[in-house]
């Protein structure tokens, strides 16, 4: 009975996969092979359904804050057998919504709606519909709905990445440009092949380095915005759910960490570590933390190579308070984690620490605290939410990255930042005369103009 209840209003008809949507709603839309799949529920497993009912009964994912906002879609992801939609709400856990489906022209597929339940908070899982390219949600069948969102393809048979990283939302006044480059290049050296960024607030100067990595195919960026104001750090509650859905089926392993954190391994890289630990049943590996004291903000703008060598965080800050499991982070198998990532406050930072629910048959592992793998957290003594100078009274000692690693990291960061921020002035005398004379522009050697 619980199984049928969770599957929504279609109930006992879950085995009957109707094809009438395909016949009656194709219109003039071309439907590719991957989109000719229809399912009747959001779960294909009895044990998964029972697990979710248990998690809901334990109230594992109720945030009940920011409850004055309207429902806005953050993301929509199509997997082999179901669809997940992430919402900006933080107050709708266990409430019912209708999944709504639309074709390539955003025309609603007649009779396709399905009632599901929001769980975990900010996420609703929906069955697939043939020809659906856009989705939305509503409280009732006949309600208005938020602007339909195009589905992001995640219906991979096998993950296309072995290791990716979800980066906590960017916000705050400290410049991010050098941190972004160092963060990405460091983890690329550790084996990461893709990064998911979410933006709360960022300067146009910092955005230039992000755009460069987007152009290179290294990252994807989601801007978190809505008309209802909320504290920027609160967006991390939303980001974790959305990034979990983004990484699912897209990456075998994913880390959820902040821009001021770096995972470092000895004797190989992260992939070597994961391959040595993975026995097929591990869904999560918790790793310890090394907190490093960061006394100053990053520089506001780029000047030259020497500045980068001085300001590289990994080079500049090497004093740590030692290894700790307090506020540790985790490497997870996104499709094996039960949908809700446990959040906690620690010294004013909203961060992910571990998964509170795993799929049936999978286990969590705590890495050996021998420093073979650790999270190097460069914690500022400024801009803390609940007080600065966190290091006062603590014993610190030196812990430096290997010189070979630092040299290669520095080379990569300098190369990337120079390509973005080091501009070569135009040599106007080299510009063909026909380019400006034919357009009746002024001579560029006399005056350079911004034409738009």
Q: What is the SS-derived class?
A: alpha/beta
What is the CATH level 1 assignment of the largest domain? Alpha Beta
The pLDDT mean sits at 82
- Please give the domain count: 3
Distinct helical segment count: 11
Distance between the termini: 64 Å
Stretches with pLDDT under 50, minimum 5 residues: 1-18, 339-351
Principal-axes geometry comes out as globular
How many β-strands, per DSSP?
Answer: 20
The main pleated sheet reads as: 10 strands, mixed
Helix content: 10-25%
Our estimate of the beta-strand percent is 25-35%
| Radius of gyration (Å) | 25 Å
CATH topology of the largest domain: Spore Coat Polysaccharide Biosynthesis Protein SpsA, Chain A
CATH architecture type of the largest domain? Alpha-Beta Complex
How would you explain this protein's 3D organization?
- With 452 residues, the chain is of the alpha/beta class.
- It folds into three domains: 33-153, Immunoglobulin-like (Sandwich), CATH 2.60.40; 162-420, Alpha-Beta Complex (Spore Coat Polysaccharide Biosynthesis Protein SpsA, Chain A); 426-451, no CATH class.
- It is 23% helix and 27% strand.
- It contains eleven helices and 20 strands.
- The strands form four sheets. Strands 9, 10, 11, 12, 13, 14, 15, 18, 19 and 20 form a ten-stranded mixed beta sheet that branches. A four-stranded mixed beta sheet has the order 5-2-1-8, with helices on one face. A four-stranded antiparallel beta sheet has the order 4-3-6-7, with no helix packed on it.
- Helix 4 packs parallel to helix 5 (204-216) and helix 4 packs across helix 10.
- The termini are far apart.
- The model is unreliable at 1-18 and 339-351 (pLDDT under 50).
- It is a single-pass membrane protein.
- Pfam families: Glyco_transf_92.
